[in-house]
Design goal:
The complex is a heterodimer of chains A (340) and B (799). Chain A is built from twelve helices and nine strands. Chain A is α+β, with helices and mostly antiparallel strands. Chain A has a seven-stranded mixed sheet, with helices on both faces. A two-stranded antiparallel sheet of chain A has the order 2-3. Chain A folds into two domains: 3-88, no CATH class; 108-339, 2-Layer Sandwich (BirA Bifunctional Protein, domain 2). The longest helix of chain A is centred in the N-terminal third of the chain and has 31 residues, at 52-82. Chain A has helices at 3-19, 23-34, 39-46, 52-82, 108-122, 136-139, 171-180, 222-237, 290-295, 312-320, 327-330, 333-336; strands spanning 126-127, 133-134, 165-166, 185-194, 206-216, 243-250, 253-262, 279-288, 304-311. Chain A starts with a helix and ends with a helix. Chain B has 799 residues and is of the alpha+beta class. Helices cover 26% and strands 28% of the residues of chain B. Chain B is built from 21 helices and 40 strands. In chain B, the strands form ten sheets. A seven-stranded mixed sheet of chain B has the order 27-31-32-36-35-34-33, sandwiched between helices. The N and C termini of chain B lie far apart (91 Å). Classes of the chains: A alpha+beta (340), B alpha+beta (799). The interface between A and B is large, with 92 and 94 residues.
């Protein structure tokens, strides 16, 4: 027995293993070479008869035989087991369409609401909700709306026979929450609102708003508000979104601002979507008017806070590039399923 | 509001371009909606003079004008009333081109050759006025380029003035803003009056009967007025501001209104009975013909201006035709008043009359400016309409001016805005808006709120003024920080969110319908009108009811999709519905509706054929069971229901813990026919509150079974009339505790079984928690159940 003979045995063993096409044939190869009475055992037993000078070489070759055959057998066995046993079966066609039911799709308005709620939740805001049918007090008076403000008109608001109205904004929820809780208050208020708008591409008689309110006993500033909206803008519209404030007027905040986001279509360079301004108007916001605090029994000298509000449909239209608000209420599956 | 830049420059030096000014205004609170340039070089267009104008024999309206271009006289046919002999006009000679590209040549009108065209303002793109031709100043030289007379193109900004800033609805008001923004002085026009005897009070008597609705009334009288147009520059400014020129007297009142925001009205004094002005409420059933020739029915809550006999104007809204200024007017009573905003608002809304005057009164004008506006208008009338001003004015102002002092703490400004604004800057910015600082300490300053700023009531209002002038771009962003609140719970929202995600996972797509619907729809679904909420002021008849259920619109949505070739739909909607309550109250409730149409629900290849009624029904039943399971409602109980919109026998109500959660069923065939839906349609509706009550319940863990289960199949051969429900009930009644599962796994019918028979195969699982069951024990139980079924239902068994 010399090293060359052992190498020859190895070659033979490997070619037999490669030729085996069934698990049984593989096993036969294993037993012939690596079995208790196999050829490897014979070599090992004969080692003592090998001249000492060659013994190490023969031993090394025997070891290589064992290692390489074991490894090949493992590999071949795996390959045989993986093979599609049913592959040969008649009628099996792996190219047929899969049969598990696909999930449906949430409405884009719901999706925007849930995205907003999730983002503000990270900053400690929880959802508060209120009724669609509101009192004149909660929807207007407590929010410091002047008694002859046009929004109170039957032209703009749906009044019911009871003297209540369909809420024109989700802001009355802020009043309801402040009436029932002590500061600090941190809420977001998604919900459906109603205005007597004639339906067109950008107006709908019912629509959704999501508002937020933060009131605390520690001083809260416009800078805090801007920071919050800047965070929201990045999370909602992308990391390079910036915000800017423009002064505006709302009865329930003072100072009041309108908040623009960088146009996500052009990145602020100016395009048709943003009317070449680089900015898109998204939110109305401001510091809670002290007159509102007094209405709910908070002392404006010791508490301060901010509030903001956004149109959900508007965000959906801006974010997903929907040209006509009516698409959101037509419920055409060819449209809705694109939000999957 | 339209702001003419050259006019603005009269009161404040502003060399900014339209774009630059628009940017400054936008970031100080006045949004600029558009910037327009009006006018131009008008190449080829010249001044013409109408030397003669005679009617055309074969036309009622057209006239033949002889127009001199400085060299020759051309025949021009023109239909405008004001194209009269002697007028200087804008002339487009043959071969010239109008701003809109129209080429002017020679044409024949009413059988007469016409060479060139006399232009109206709209044809020159100066405004949309086409009521007459543009009349140029009398000293314009025929043949001179038109651009020489019209001057440089004008820049006009369209402003959106916020509701709280009535003072900005005037050129001077905007000049005050611009002056504050640029740190420049505001120049008010100086008014000098030359008055003559007799006193105004001798020429008119003013009685204000309702000082609440009319806190101030200033009347001035002018005599010896002559008819004619206002000067050209004034007419240009009116036109650029979107106001049509009429006559010098009317134009001056409009000019002063635009200039300072105080609406004025000029009455023909000769047409006021007894030369009296009575400010009173309208009498019951009083009627009046307004300037727009419409007869108005007045009610006693409306304030009117009357003479000794009748109403001559709706206060603050519109004048009456009876006392209107006309070509014969020689004497006028000039009204400058302050009317109650709410009263003007409601009157203008009730009459459907929204005028430049009412828009300003309803937001609140400057009570101190009333007298100034009266003097300003009188001076302009004397100058441009040749009037003599009677001495003094009748000024009824019993209340006087309210004075408001407001304290502004410097530190408060900084803490609210988050901006580092120095004390001096606060005082300076307030001063720049003509809010005089009357007192200043180390920590605060006190300002007097001027009467033209009714919006300034307290410190917060001043902080806003400082913030917007200082610049909101300077508000820094910081890391958001705040205390966490712990008393808030948003379980209802989160439960709905869970429900939505579950349904999406089950393969359903969410829809959203309007809260309003047409009355025909609930009626179609068998809902009495009395059970729905009608809107007193709907936008349209097809949106006049509040929805009482989500199902009608769900069916409509399925139908709409079918019509659009989306024949397979599994939809849901979560929304609120409304029901009339006691008295006029309205109840609302959140509901979940589901709608299925076409081959939905099955896993596997879906047939092209429509599903059977049974398939569709069971798909909906399985779906709602899956949802109820996910929502942990507990054991479900089904009860037959037959609401009018469901097919008879194909309706079920779902109950858990004795509470009704909702119902489901197949839509009635007649309803489907409405929308030509051939296949079965399943609908379901749940009240979300009971459905989602236990969504966040903690799971109760049971130990895993120790002993193995034994399975036995049982094939029951029964009449078709026997239901699975009956079989299951008997099994459960006779089953030992060890029966832990019953599963129907096959139903089949065959010739061998015979017609009217079916075989239902059940897999029954037995297991004990105490030991391994032996075959004998299980067989005994199984046999007991078989006997019970045989005896009670008369069924057989297949082995």
């Amino acid at each position: 027995m010399n090293a060359k003979a052992v190498r020859d045995i190895r070659e033979q063993a490997l070619s037999e293993a490669n030729a085996a096409t069934t698990a049984a044939a593989l096993e036969a190869v294993r037993i012939r070479y690596l079995g208790r009475k196999g050829l490897l055992q014979d070599i090992m037993k004969g080692l003592k008869d090998v001249p000492p000078a060659e013994r190490a070489d023969v031993g090394r070759e025997a070891n290589a035989l064992k290692k390489s055959l074991e490894s090949l057998l493992r590999e071949r066995k795996g390959a045989l087991e993986r093979a599609p046993a049913v592959g040969a079966a008649a009628g099996f066609d792996p190219t047929l369409p899969g049969v598990w039911r696909a999930p449906g799709v949430a409405h884009p308005v719901s999706r925007v609401i849930e995205d907003c709620v999730r983002i503000f939740a990270r900053l400690g805001f929880t959802v508060a909700e209120g009724p669609d049918i509101e009192t004149r007090y909660h929807n207007f008076e407590a929010l410091n709306t002047p008694p002859h403000h046009p929004s109170l008109d039957a032209l703009d608001t749906f009044w019911l026979a009871s003297g209540e109205c369909l809420r024109t904004q989700t802001s009355p929820v802020q009043i309801r929450v402040m009436e029932s809780r002590k500061p600090p208050v941190r809420i977001v208020t998604p919900g459906r609102c109603y205005r007597r708008d004639t339906t067109d591409a950008t107006h709908s008689a019912n629509f959704h708003q999501i508002e937020g309110l933060y009131v605390d006993c520690a001083p809260v500033s416009l800078a805090d508000l801007k920071s919050l909206l800047a965070y929201f803008a990045r999370e909602m519209m992308g990391p390079s979104t910036d915000v800017r404030f423009r002064p505006h007027f709302f009865p329930f905040t003072e100072p009041s601002v309108e908040c623009d986001f960088t146009c996500h279509v052009c990145g602020g360079k100016g395009c048709r979507v943003c009317k070449f301004s680089g900015w898109i108007e998204i939110a109305g916001a401001g510091m809670v008017d002290p007159r509102v605090f007094r209405q709910v029994g908070y002392d404006p000298e010791t508490v301060s806070g901010y509030a903001w509000g956004m149109g959900v449909e508007r965000i959906a239209m801006v974010k997903y590039g929907i040209a006509d608000i009516r698409m959101l209420y037509e419920n055409d599956l060819r449209f809705l399923t694109q939000f999957a | 509001m339209k702001l003419v830049l050259s006019w603005l420059n009269e009161y404040v030096d502003c060399e900014l371009s339209g774009e630059e000014l628009a940017e400054k205004l936008t970031f100080s609170g006045t949004e600029v909606e558009a910037i327009r340039t009006v006018g131009g070089a008008f190449p080829g267009l010249i001044v013409g003079e109408i030397v003669a104008a005679e009617p055309l024999p074969n036309s009622e309206r057209l006239r033949l004008c002889r127009v001199s271009d400085g060299h020759e006289t051309l025949p021009v046919v023109c239909g405008a009333d004001n194209a009269t002999a002697g007028a200087k006009i804008a002339f487009a000679p043959p071969g010239s081109t109008l701003p809109n590209g129209t080429a002017i040549g020679e044409t024949t009108l009413a059988g007469t050759v016409s060479r060139g065209m006399i232009c109206a303002e709209d044809e020159l793109a100066l405004s949309d006025d086409h009521s007459g031709v543009l009349i140029l100043p009398p000293d314009a030289r025929p043949g001179a380029p038109l651009a020489e007379i019209l001057g440089e193109p004008e820049t006009v900004l369209d402003l959106e003035v916020t509701w709280n800033r009535p003072d900005c609805l005037s050129v001077i008001g905007m000049a005050r803003e611009v002056a504050a923004l640029l740190g420049r002085p505001l120049r008010r026009p100086a008014v000098t009056l030359t008055e003559n005897d007799p006193a105004a009070s001798e020429l008119v008597r003013v009685d204000v009967e309702d000082t609440e609705l009319c806190p101030r009334y200033v009347a001035r009288v002018l005599t010896g007025l002559r008819p004619g147009p206002a000067p050209f520059w004034m007419r240009r400014r009116l036109s650029l501001s979107g106001v049509r020129a009429i006559s010098a007297i009317v134009d001056v009142t409009n000019y002063v209104l635009l200039e300072c925001g105080q609406p004025l009205h000029a009455f023909d004094a000769a047409r006021l009975a007894e030369r009296r002005i009575v400010v009173r409420r309208a009498r019951p059933n009083e009627r009046m013909l307004t300037l727009d020739e419409a007869e108005r029915a007045l009610t006693p809550d409306m304030l009117v201006i009357a003479d000794a006999e009748q109403a001559v104007a709706v206060a603050g809204v519109m004048g009456g035709a009876g006392s209107e200024i006309g070509p014969d007017t020689r004497e006028t009573v000039l009204e400058s008043a302050w009317f109650d905003p709410a009263s003007v608002r409601s009157t203008s809304a009730r009459l459907g009359l929204n005028t430049e005057a009412s828009r300003r009164f309803e937001r609140g004008i400057d009570p101190a400016g009333t007298e100034w506006a009266s003097r300003r208008a009188a001076a302009l009338l004397a100058e441009h309409a040749g009037g003599m001003i009677a001495r003094g004015a009748v000024d009824v102002f019993p209340g006087g001016l309210p004075a408001r002092s407001i304290c502004c703490r410097f530190e408060r400004v900084r803490s609210v805005t988050g901006m580092d604004i120095a004390d001096d800057a606060v005082a300076r910015l307030l001063g720049s808006l003509e809010l005089p600082v009357t007192e200043r300490t180390a920590v605060a300053c006190v300002v007097t709120a001027p009467s033209f700023r009714p919006d300034l009531e307290e410190e917060a209002d001043l902080i806003e003024e400082v913030a917007r002038l200082h610049g909101l771009d300077k508000v820094p962003t910081v890391t958001p920080s705040s205390r966490v609140t712990s008393d808030a719970s948003d379980h209802p929202f989160q439960a709905l969110s869970f429900c939505r995600q579950t349904l999406v996972g089950l393969g359903l797509t969410e829809i959203m319908n309007y809260s309003f619907l047409a009355p025909a729809l609930p009626e179609l679904f068998g809902c009495a009108v009395a059970d729905t909420v009608a809107l007193p002021n709907p936008v349209s008849a097809d949106q006049s009811l509040m929805r009482h259920s989500l199902i009608p619109q769900m069916a409509e949505t399925l139908a709409r999709n079918l019509a659009r070739q989306n024949g397979r739909a599994a939809l849901f909607e979560i929304g609120r519905v409304f029901r009339p309550g006691a008295k006029d109250s309205v109840g609302e409730e959140t509901r979940l509706a589901i709608g299925l149409m076409g081959a939905v629900g099955q896993v596997g290849l879906r047939g092209k054929t429509l599903p059977t009624d049974a398939d569709m029904f069971l798909a909906m039943k399985g779906l709602t069971e899956a949802l109820a399971g996910a929502c942990h409602v507990g054991a479900i109980e089904w009860k037959a229901e037959s609401p009018p919109f469901l097919a008879p026998g194909a309706g079920l109500g779902m109950y858990a813990n004795g509470k009704r959660l909702g119902g489901l069923g197949l839509l009635r065939r007649e309803l489907r026919a409405e929308w030509r839906m051939r296949g079965p349609v399943a609908v379901a509706e749940f009240a979300t509150e009971p459905l989602l009550e236990h969504v966040f319940r903690l799971p109760e863990l049971n130990p895993l079974p120790i002993y193995p289960a034994v399975e036995r199949d049982m094939a029951v051969v029964a009449d078709e009339a026997t239901t699975h429900g009956q079989i299951e009930e008997i099994i459960r009644r006779h089953a030992p505790d060890t029966l832990v599962g019953i599963e129907l796994f096959d139903i089949f019918r065959s010739a061998e079984l015979g017609s009217g028979k079916k075989s239902l195969a059940y897999a029954m699982t037995y297991r004990s928690s105490a030991k391994t069951l032996t075959d004998e024990e299980v067989n005994l139980c199984h046999e007991t159940i078989r006997n019970a079924l045989r005896e009670t239902l008369g069924v057989g068994f297949r082995e």
